[in-house]
Amino acid sequence: MIYTGNHLSSSKGYLAMGQNALKLGADTFAFFTRNPRGGSAKEIRQSDADDLMRLAGEHHFGPLVAHSPYTMNLCSAKEDIREFSLNMLKEDLVRMEATPGQYLNFHPGSHTGQGAEKGIEQICSALNEALFGSMTTTVLLETMAGKGSEIGRTFEELRAIIDGTVLGSRLGVCLDTCHIWDGGYDLQHFDRVLDEFDRIIGLDRLKAIHFNGSLNPCGAAKDRHARLGEGLIDLQVLKAVAQNPRVQGLPFILETPNDDEGYAREIALMRSWF
Ligand code: FE
Ligand code: FE
Ligand code: ZN
To answer: Strand pairing partners for 31?
Structure first.
């Protein structure tokens, strides 16, 4: 069995997200820690966060997978953007303690011309400033499509980030099916992909899946999501990914272009596979 859910809006608060997830048939969900295209954050009411955690416990939810804003880039060539990004990450890691023990997923970043090595160095130095020993959150590096100067297209780059981070034991990986497909990992041979993941990163680091189709062929380095079975990743291939014994127990988050009804349909489809 896997946990299944989608991205939800936090605009009506935390408990409302949990209730919305239940309505859609979900038993996990993702949410942005703050405005995904800006960076402003709403204050979290601890009682609201507690209510969500109670509801999640009662309904046996899997781990929740929060997502950092898209504007965060820890390895921009521009120092002010790196500063702004580091501050958001620091604050969000504190905010995540309102919901203890969950996941915070982020895009490693785009080196914007500095080269991957320099970018990885900057990401590690930011993580070394932001992570703290008493945090209960596991921070997830998302596998990327390799669009532009994105870091995290290869498992080797993610490994290098883990190795360069003092609290690397608190890092995990969120595998995005659209991104790794676009990045050149052939999901039609998912066991081989997992073998490689295990060899380079270690399967125990795999904590969450972003479950998406892709509008582009494998290796396109594009990053455009499709609904399940509607893009170039065959539905049977996605089904085999979800059913793979080595990913059971993980939260599968849909980031497909859908309205609520569409998400409820995809969640029901995934449930029918078990
Ligand atoms: Fe993402
Ligand atoms: Fe994703
Ligand atoms: Zn994407």
So the answer is: 66
Q: At 98, is the secondary structure helix, strand, or coil? A: helix
68 phi, psi to nearest 5 deg: -70, 155
Q: pLDDT for 147-187, tens place per residue?
A: 999 999 999 999 999 999 999 999 999 999 999 999 999 99
Angle at 143 between CA 39 and CA 157, to 5 degrees: 105
What's the chain's length in residues? Answer: 274
The span from the CA of 157 to the CA of 46, in Å, is 36
235 CB contacts (<8 Å, ≥6 apart)?
Answer: 228, 229
DSSP classification of residue 31: E
39 φ/ψ angles, rounded to the nearest 5 degrees? 160, -10
Give the environment of ion ligand 1: residues with CB less than 5 A: 142
Digit-coded pLDDT (tens) for 191-205: 999 999 999 999 999
Distance 140 CA to ligand 2 centre (A): 11
Considering every ligand atom, which ligand is closest to the CA of 107? 1
How many angstroms separate the alpha carbon of residue 255 from the centre of ligand 2?
Answer: 7
The number of the ligand nearest the C-alpha atom of 177 reads: 2
